[in-house]
Amino acid sequence: MKRAFLIYNPVAGQENPATILGDIALKLSEHYQLTVVQTKPDVQPEELAKQALKEKADLIIASGGDGTVGAVAGVLVGTGLPVRSSSTMLRAALHPTLITDRTCPSAGVPLGIVPRGTANAFSVALGIPTHLDDPTGFQNAAADVILSGHTKEVDTALVTTSEVTDYPMILLMGIGYEAEMCDAADRDLKNALGPLAYVISGAQKLLTASNFKATVHVDGETAEGEVAAITVANAAPPFSVLAHGHTGECIYDDGKLEAIGYVAEEGGVTAKVSNVVNMARLFSGVMFSDDPVQHEEKIFGGRYSDIKIECDPPQKVVLDGELLGTTPVRARVLPSSLRVLVPPPAAPTAEESAEVVHKIAEQEGVDEAVAAIVVDKLGVPAAAKVVEDSQQVADKPVVAPSTEQSR
Ligand SMILES: Nc1ncnc2c1ncn2[C@@H]1O[C@H](COP(=O)(O)OP(=O)(O)OP(=O)(O)O)[C@@H](O)[C@H]1O
User: Fold this and answer.
1) ipTM rounded to 2 decimals
2) Out of 64, 181, 193, 218, which could bridge 304 as a Cys pair, Cβ 3.0 to 4.6 Å?
3) Can you give the pLDDT at residue 168?
4) Helix (H, G, I), strand (E, B), or coil: what is residue 243?
5) Roughly what angle, to the nearest 10 degrees, separates helices 380-395 and 350-364?
6) pTM value?
7) Rounded distance from Cα 12 to ligand 1 centre (Å)
8) Do 38 and 152 share a structural domain?
9) Are residues 275 and 172 in the same domain?
10) The total number of structural domains that make up the chain
11) According to its record, what are the GO cellular component terms (predicted)?
12) Quick check: is 403 in a domain?
């Protein structure tokens, strides 16, 4: 029987861990030789995860908030072979400065997650069910994801501040307003209010928020400016609006980090109030509103693999919801470095299958019966991807060689 370790933080979230984890442990024990261990104020998840690896764990499950999940994930990053998949090798070849020894640590021992925290941002970003999705069926849903064995390789990053070197990041780091907000949302406030704690602490911080000068070095280029907040994100749930940048998408498996700065308006008290009100909406308002947030002119940023940020005056850095240290800070992406158990994709419906068969038949000029055999062999998702890729090639504007030459 394979060995699984369940590492849980008893003080995370608002629910009783025994109720949730008892059922899940029972279900997992039917398939794994399961060891359940609990974090303590002086026994951190990293230590327990390292011990589990020493004991030849085939699977490590983290249960708690993003702090616990991130700490266990950090130990699992790169537990596979130095360079594994062809895409990782390709990225290593394209970005030789990314990792100094020119190898990418690859995903190895898979990470299972039983989200029991306040925000569970990593689980939400990856589509892993949380108790907020389904309070009654949560135990079953969480165990089913783990038992499905379906994994996804995701990027992570290493973050270095004045105080720590190469600290693993799974979600995002915040500098400025967001860092102050997370720092102020303490355990008692989170216990009492849940996710609302971040909104309350955010509101408190609005009163004292101030702008700062930032110098940002990204993939060999440098930019400078006055900002109120900077976010560097690897993965982010939809409600972390700023982390999604101006593209509206934070992609956790593209080998890049989404860096985004909130540009502070020049001016006096009115401008400052307008800044902080906008930030409040960006960070928290969307949790309670369906209104789209208009933030296009307020932000700058892009996707990078290596980001260095210096601030004047130095700013707090919050990483994955916990205070990490102060600027200067550097974040480097580690592409495809963590394997996570996620829900398997939903089986395609009969209509979806028929549509793909129809498109392949049309595109390739073959009979639908022949197309159906191809779709059956490839599987519907892979066949749909073939159709999509050929469509993209067909849609690309073609520049005639004669036009090029005549310029
Ligand atoms: N047994 C324990 N007793 C007290 N504190 C603990 C214990 N185990 C872990 N911690 C602390 O819990 C924090 C991590 O909490 P975690 O992120 O898992 O949950 P959360 O704060 O409820 O969730 P979220 O990050 O979503 O707000 C760390 O600061 C860690 O030191």
Assistant:
1) 0.95
2) 218
3) 92
4) helix
5) 40
6) 0.74
7) 5
8) yes
9) yes
10) 3
11) cytosol
12) no
Q: What is the DSSP letter of 159?
A: E
Centre of ligand 1 from the C-alpha of residue 13, in Å: 8
Q: Residue 19 to residues 22, 123, 375: CA-CA distances in angstroms? A: 6, 20, 44
Residues 245 and 301 in one domain: yes
Residue 18 lies in a domain: yes
Is 28:113 a contact under the CB 8 Å cutoff? no
The CATH number of whichever domain residue 119 belongs to comes to: 3.40.50.10330
Which of the four pLDDT bands, split at 50, 70 and 90, describes residue 295? Answer: very low
Domain hosting residue 36, numbered range: 3-158
- Note the pLDDT tens digit of each residue in 144-168: 999 999 999 999 999 999 899 999 9
Nearest CA, atom 31, ligand 1: 41
Pairwise CA distance, residues 395 & 392, whole Å: 5
Instruction: Determine the distance separating the centroid of ligand 1 and the alpha carbon of 68, expressed in angstroms.
Output: 6
Task: Report if residue 78 sits inside a domain.
Answer: yes
- Of 126, 158, 190, the domain-final residue: 158
Within 6 A (CB) of ligand 1 lie 9-13, 39-41, 64-68, 117-120, 190, 321-322
Nearest CA residue ID for atom 14, ligand 1: 67
Q: What amino acid occupies position 20?
A: I
> Based on the domain organization, do 293 and 328 belong to the same domain?
yes
What's the whole-number mean pLDDT along residues 171-199? Answer: 64
Distance 47 CA to ligand 1 centre (A): 14
Q: What secondary structure letter does DSSP report for 405?
A: H
Two tokens at 387? 């159709």
What number does the ligand 1 atom closest to the CA of 64 have? 18
Whether residue 402 is contained in a domain is answered as no
